[in-house]
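Just scan this pair:

***
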Amino acid sequence: MIGYRSEIDGLRAIAVVSVLLFHAGFSFVPGGFVGVDVFFVISGYLITSMIVKEMDDGKFSFSNFYERRARRLLPPLIPVFIAAWVFSFFLFNDQQFSDFCRSVYAALGFVSNWFFLSEVSYFDGPGELTPLLHIWSLSVEEQFYFVFPILLLAACKLNRKRLLSISIFLALISLIYSIYLIEEFERETAFYSSLARFWELLVGAILAISTVRAPRRILAVDTLEVIGLSLILVSAFTYSKDTIFPGATALLPTVGTALIIAAQGRGRVVSVVLKSRPFVWVGLVSYSLYLWHWPILVAIRTGKPAATLGELSVGLLIAFVLALASYFLIEQPVRKKIIIGSTRQAYAMAATFLIGAAALVYVGSTPKFAAIQLSAFTETRAKLYNGDKATMLSRIEEETAIYMKDLNVNFHGRISQYDPKIHSGWTCSYDQGNTTERLFQCLISQAKAENVLVMGDSVGRDTLHALRRAFPGTNFIMLHQSSCPPGDVKAKCFPQSEELLKRVASAIAIKAIVINFQYRPREWIDVESGLLAAKSVTNNVIMLGVAPLLGMNSADYIKSLPDGQSVPLFYPADNKNIIRWSYQDLANDARQMAEKHNVFFVNVLDFFCPAEQCRLWVDNRYGDPLLFDLQHLTNHGISEFSGYLKSQPLLKQIM
């Protein structure tokens, strides 16, 4: 087993502080998420060094190895899980609490990364209100350590000399897979997938297996460390949520970490800083600090979505205090076997925690307990938000539930077979890997003598519902793909749509095609190929635009208002955190594109944002929210939008 290296704890400090500052929203560290990559390399190096040393000495035991992992990982997790469960019980509505309970099951099985891949994005949206989102990285590590020790043991017994070349080969395969996913626009899969992340742990493992020695010349050592630290800091300070990551871009922090480790703490500048007492102390508590910080930030943002950096900084300070307490009162006593002394007790501790947590979550999901939780949440919200705010928030939740149950209806790839009794009126969606053959069958199954085809994403689906209410005598069908403009963009959005449209048009009568989707400044122009495909089918092609994509939904905006301030009818036009860009400019650009391709354009921006003020409420009066999230209309909002569409002369003429 390698000796203690204090500079590695200093590296841990840089990693965890980067992650904390990024999660708290400090703009000067927009790429702080690379701290996780630094952790991966460190973990791969330290644990592989230990495993290989024990295997070479003939002392390795899977029982002892997983005992050490249990002692290291589980005890600090226990209070974090309890705290997250308690605040979720009081601050989350029933659906959010149910989602949290499911995430606990995933965390207990060390499959959080796969769970969150199917549920939330790491970089935006619901992820900010997911208390255990950060556990994804622990799951990746543990999946690695379920597999890699077996491979090491087999390689050591068969041919010890091949161990390094095997590890390099596996690292290259994993890196290539990560790059492939990025090239295929599967960013979320590349981020969460253990197979696409193992190469980062393997970089550390390769260092350990190769037993590389630091250069003899001190200047070369200094150069290694300075370059290594520079690579980490450059990625932390220049990367952002918009960086295509991980893939090849993850090489900077991982290679940088490897260079510092390879220098073996002999440098005269970087190592001196990393070995300093403040860095080492933060590194020693980095695991507990990482565990505590995210649930605390989520709790603050749940209660106050517009929390200031000062308030979030207080949350980080609380996390640091709890991390210190965890280190001295839990981690050290357990790891040094002051408490839970034997192997049997360690495994009993692990089993008790896993079974107990699962049982608690199971009880929490029963109908009787769910009613208790909902009552506690309702009372808590009434105390947090005075006046009519709690009632307004309740209405938004009601509308959200209605939409998700009745209006979020898509025939996608995971539905085994199209059933006209069930799926009639649903969108025909590319989502979940649906095939063009199934999409064709879905579209023609819903066709009548004359049809209007709607193309777009979930915003287009809202338009579909509104058009059906506005023109009940017209048959509307829809080709849908989530988060995509309806253009064939590198097989990511609406793949092979031109061929599909021509095939559909040869089978059924298409009177017109309506295109609507979420316009974003950099992505919406990808609709151009979709316009050309639609024009090949009919001359009646209509672009609708532009619905706003807000930076804060109405519920969070209401929560963020100071005590005593009444809820307005419109969002503040000068709040750049909410009104993030000029929707009017987008509408003007969309009109120009429509004119360029000789298609019709209907500007619907005035419905959402009359006089450049974006609305909160249906009919501009308190009661029914217009949107339930950042972009989607409520059921009542769809009804009002249908009236607006019905009043448009062009639509009346064509429909």
Q: What stands out?
A: The first helix runs from residue 6 to 24. The beta strands are 410-411, 427-429, 451-456, 475-480, 510-515, 541-545, 600-603.
